[in-house]
Amino acid sequence: LSDVHLYTGSRCNRTCGFCIVEGRPQGWHQPLSEAALDAALALVPCDGTIKFYGGEPTLDLPNLLWSMTYLRLKGFDGWFTIFTNGVQADRVLA
To answer: pLDDT tens digits, residue range 16-28?
Structure first.
């Protein structure tokens, strides 16, 4: 596989009618774990792409940043893509 999509749930800070995962504020969320990230690493090449989906993956920014750091420490040198509505972009970039 050239890329792997990691889905953390349907919790979102918006309720867009066109959302493909039916994201909503009352949605569910499951933080990423070492086991899930290790499974992703077993599927994608070190120079591949790991994509973070939600709902809105930036709502749990500590887990998102921890996940990316964990993957880097385990040798993943590829791309990260965060599928976001961008509402919290300033907070994420900071």
So the answer is: 888 888 899 999 9
Give the whole-angstrom CA distance, residue 79 versus residue 20: 23
State the number of CA atoms in the 13 A half-sphere of 14 facing the CB: 16
pTM: 0.91
**How far is residue 48's CA from residue 1's CA, in Å, rounded to a whole number?**
8
The SS3 call for residue 92 is: helix
Q: Token pair of 40, please?
A: 């992703």
Report in angstroms the alpha-carbon separations of 9 from 22, 66, 83: 10, 17, 12
Distance CA 8, CA 75 (A): 22
pLDDT (tens digit per residue) in 30-58: 999 999 999 999 999 999 999 999 899 99
